[in-house]
Design brief:
alpha+beta; Alpha-Beta Plaits; 10 helices; elongated; disordered N terminus
Amino acid sequence: MSARPGTKTDRAADDGVPEGQRRRRPDESMTLLVEVMERPLDPGYADAAARRKAASAAGSTPRRGWAGAAALAVLAGVLGLVTVAAAQQLRAPQAEIAEARQLLEDQIVERQAVADGLRDRSGELSAEIDELQHETLASQDPALLRTLRVDSAVNGTSPVAGPGLVVTLADGGGGLSDTESEPGARVRDVDVQTVVNALWSSGAEAIEVDGQRLTTMSAIRNAGDAILVDLVPLPGPSYVIRAVGDPEGMQTAYARTGAPAYLQLLGSRYGVSSSVVPQSELELSGVGTQTLRHAQPTDDDVTQDETQEERP
């Protein structure tokens, strides 16, 4: 049987043939591929594989040096100690930090007490000023005193009492359900504004939202999920709006505004509940004397159009 060209047998057969008459291998031009096919493993790797095979046949396995294992163990121990020490330092409160925090807490409590005292003193002085003013005007200009009393009731500076309406708004589910998944289920500032504006247009003489008396300079806004009345956050999840005025007339006029239909839509779509209840007696607190930030004198001889043209 003839040997395949290019094998050892074939090359041995061509050893005695002159160079010009020697047969050429078909794959002679593909030396790199021939090397890869005939010698796929580097000689060094082949020797290492042979030694490993011989050691396995003899029943012995190569072992890692004890020095390397000891070094790894020492390194792992050092890293563990460093981690434990760092964790203890981070978790253990330092004496300086605790002392500084306690000092800040004491200062906050002290300043809050001073602010409360000043606010109470301001209320007392405002009441004394109002009393002296009323006594003076009662003897000199009773008509002006009556005008001031009416104005103070309207602008919220003095407390008022009388019959009226109580409108209550509550978050969807009464605050018991997960209203975060449905943002519309929370009462928003625009909802309170809608009810307040409807009450004003219905003839309310004074309005209070969760104990915050509304004045001519009041603002109802929101900050995140909180509703603010004059920068005071309302607790929620229910909001009580109390309005002093004629209950029957206010209730009839309120029903003609767009507030009832608006609240009905909130209830059917988002579960926001609302109620309107007349009351025979309501007491609304006052905010005291307010600071006048801007005033402009008017001339009775100047018409309204001319006054508006002269304004900057």
